[in-house]
Amino acid sequence: MTTVPAASTPAVTFTSGGQTLAGVLHLPAGPGPHPVVVLLHGFPGNERNFDLAQSLRRAGYAALVFHYRGSWGMGGDYAFTHVLQDAAAVVAAVRAEPFAAAHRLDPARVAVAGHSLGGFAALMTAAADPAVAATVSIAGFDVGTAAVLCADPVTRAECVEALGSDLLPLRGTSGEALVSEMVAAGPAWRLAGLARAFEDRPVLLVGTGRDPVTPQEVHHQPLVRAYGQRPRIRLEHLVFDTDHALSDHRVELAGVLLDFLGRSLGGAAASQQGGQLAQ
Q: Which end of the chain, N or C, is more open, meaning fewer C-beta atoms within 10 Å of its C-beta?
């Protein structure tokens, strides 16, 4: 009798910028190959979406949560540029041999989903990597749009203070350094400018209606309009009446995410042959 691989939660590592990045992979039961979702946390990463990882695993998806350089004990310095580099490196690594084979992953069905700054990183990463099969931004922080707003000295000072107040789990940076990096990148980091890269690709944008961090009229609605002007983008979007962390809508968020991935990746049932979904 063939033994069916059990669900597991291995600690994994990746390399980016000469630094080791720690992650946790949530693997479902069954021989696979499993579709995989790379979950990108925000700034500084207090909400790391482990509940979504567990929901994904129960539905037959592998889910990865990891830390960027300079965050939560990782080596190197934290920077928005490093977040983008690390996200791109990890997404490429989960598709590569021998990692995909060792963990029973399907390299043709890799999705990227991010929250807040992670939503920005998800869209930036997928736009530059056509092999990403589906992209999700949840309360995404449009760094390029924020950079434009920081042309106003009062707004810039407020942004420096806000970012500087959240640095405890980060190293090698400051509020001023992060805002300066953001302003220097400018229009290159405006998410609306990525629209062409998502033609013929599925994208889910989730906004938050009671959110002073990424107010929907600044960070969500303009992106929906920009992407909606390109009918070839397989765009889905909605707004939850909730706060930035979706604190009272986590179950609803998981359901929307699973529905979208089921349509975009072809579902996870095929990877479960010979086994049952991990509970």
A: N
As averages over each run of 10 residues, the pLDDT of the chain (279 residues) reads 89 98 98 97 96 98 98 98 98 97 98 98 98 98 97 97 97 98 96 98 98 97 98 98 98 98 80 39
Q: Are 190 and 149 in contact (CB under 8 A)?
A: no
| Residue 38 to residue 118: CA distance in whole angstroms | 10
Characterize the bridge pairing of strands 202-208 and 234-240.
parallel
Take residue 31 and report the two structure tokens written for it.
């021989």
Cα–Cα distance, 89 to 77 (Å, whole number): 16
Determine the pLDDT at residue 278. Answer: 33
Looking up tokens 């291995």 gives: 10
Is 216 in contact with 116 (CB distance < 8 Å)? no
CA distance 26 to 58: 10
SS3 state of residue 234: strand
Sequential DSSP letters for 114-132 = EETHHHHHHHHHHHH-TT-
CA distances from 72 to 46, 78, 170, 183, 234 (A): 10, 10, 6, 25, 35
